[in-house]
Design brief:
alpha/beta; Bact_solute-bd_prot1; 10-stranded mixed β-sheet; single chain; signal; Carbohydrate ABC transporter substrate-binding protein, CUT1 family; 12 strands; 436 residues; SBP; two-stranded antiparallel sheet; 2 domains; D-Maltodextrin-Binding Protein, domain 2; 20 helices; globular
């Protein structure tokens, strides 16, 4: 029998058959007699998020089905709907999901602690040509819990420095390689170009936390210390808060808002109103495509600048694939993950502009051809020195970000940093104690 995939789309009550004849051919062969209930079932239930990565994989699933002899039942959902489904089904111990796409930094700890994710350690250790050692250290760190591999990273991003090549050239300023140089360059370019901010970045209390993390790490700080306690009152964290907030306070846009996430910050840069911008590498098309940017021809890319402890940008997996621990079809679930994250698939997906987690693909000219050369170089460097998380690794991530992000806003507005850090530290410690 030639197998065909079945697709469930958010908002539709019934499955949409995407290949003619699927129902009759499967019924005739008996393929659906014990769908998903026994080890080795011929029907594999895969739940993925709405994402460009998913769209590419979806087009190739028939290849996997032909190679494996399996039928893939694909459910594709938006992020909120995905979270709602996981909350219901995983909490209930349902075996109706075999492969699950999840966000390691947003829900990874919660899922791992609750036992939702199967232990993949032995499977990844015996990967053969699939080669788990080829995956970047940062993303692997984020998909490992208590020394057990619980996911395979699929999509990555790093923080990089975006800059205006024309403004730097006119001001005679070199591309900054350190945070001290970045501050000096932001000052020089803003003074040479009245009305243009020297620097822009996220300012919102929660939204800024992920981008602030690279500054925190590069100053030698962290959100949580090795004993599991709040570290945001450390001297290193204080310096990072003061530096990030100071750049925006002193050289940011006039009357800078303190609730900007990436769309607002990126728009300021894209409209020619800032010289430097640090944010995720995945946002580059918002700045380099003419329909999005008035400065598309003069955007440069550089690695995140070095701080006192070197250049330590986040290098994180925004998404990963895991196996539902309650699934009775885990062997076949693993076959799908190996196929979807193979060197060949990772290369093909990255060629379409979706950054992957394999070192070999970033070292391959074909894998970087679709990216601006300087951006690919910056990402490669950040992948080597980066940290595998960009926010506190806790179960209630949203709440934690609101707490630890408060001193960022106070620093931007020039407020009382002693009081802000003390309050945030106390609040974060109470939060951490409550999660234990």
């Amino acid at each position: 029998m030639k197998h065909h995939s079945v697709l469930k789309v958010a908002g539709l009550g019934a499955a949409i058959v995407v290949a003619a004849g699927v129902l009759t051919s499967c019924a005739a062969s008996g393929a659906g007699d014990n769908e998903g209930k026994a080890e080795g079932s011929s029907t594999l239930r895969v739940t993925l998020a709405n994402h460009v990565w998913t769209d590419i994989v979806k087009e190739k699933i028939s290849d996997f089905e032909d190679e494996s002899g399996l039928t893939v039942e694909l459910t594709q959902l938006g992020e909120d709907q995905l979270s709602d489904q996981y909350n219901v089904k995983l909490n209930a111990g349902s075996d109706e999901i075999d492969v699950m796409m999840y966000r390691p930094l947003q829900e990874g700890k919660l899922f791992a602690e609750n036992g939702y994710l199967a232990d993949l350690t032995d499977r990844t250790a015996d990967g053969g040509d699939w080669d788990f050692d080829d995956f970047q250290a940062g993303p692997v760190e984020a998909t490992t819990y208590d020394d057990k591999v619980v996911g395979v990273p699929t999509i990555t991003e790093q923080e990089v420095l975006y800059y205006r090549t024309d403004l730097l050239e006119a001001a005679g300023v070199e591309v900054p390689t350190t945070l001290d140089e970045l501050e000096a360059a932001a000052k020089a370019v803003s003074e040479a170009n009245p009305g243009v901010a020297g620097f822009v970045a996220r300012t919102g209390k929660s939204a800024a936390v992920t981008q602030f993390s690279s500054y925190l790490f590069s100053f030698g700080g962290d959100f949580i210390d090795k004993d599991g306690n709040s570290a945001i009152d450390s001297p290193e964290a204080r310096k990072a808060f003061e530096y990030y907030g100071g750049l925006l306070h002193n050289y940011g846009p006039e009357n800078v808002s303190t609730d900007m996430s990436w769309p607002e910050a990126a728009a300021i840069f894209a409209q020619g109103n800032a010289a430097f911008y640090t944010d995720a590498s995945s946002l580059y098309k918002n700045l380099t495509e003419a329909e999005n940017s008035t400065v598309s021809d003069s955007v440069g890319f550089a690695p995140f600048p070095e701080g006192p402890e070197g250049s330590k940008p986040y290098n994180v997996p925004s998404w990963a694939l895991g196996v539902n621990a309650a699934s009775e079809n885990q062997d076949n679930a693993w076959k799908f993950i190996q196929w979807a994250t193979s060197p060949e698939m990772t290369l093909e997906i990255q060629q379409a502009g979706v950054p992957g987690a394999r070192d070999s693909v970033w070292a391959n000219e074909e894998g970087t051809a679709s990216f601006p050369a300087d951006l690919a170089k910056a990402v490669a460097i950040g992948s080597e020195t980066g940290v595998g998380y960009d926010r506190p690794l806790v179960k209630s991530v949203a709440e934690a970000r609101e707490i630890v992000g408060m001193p960022i806003v106070v620093a931007i507005t020039g407020g009382d940093m002693d009081a802000a850090i003390a309050e945030a530290h106390e609040g974060f410690q109470k939060f951490l104690d409550g999660e234990k």
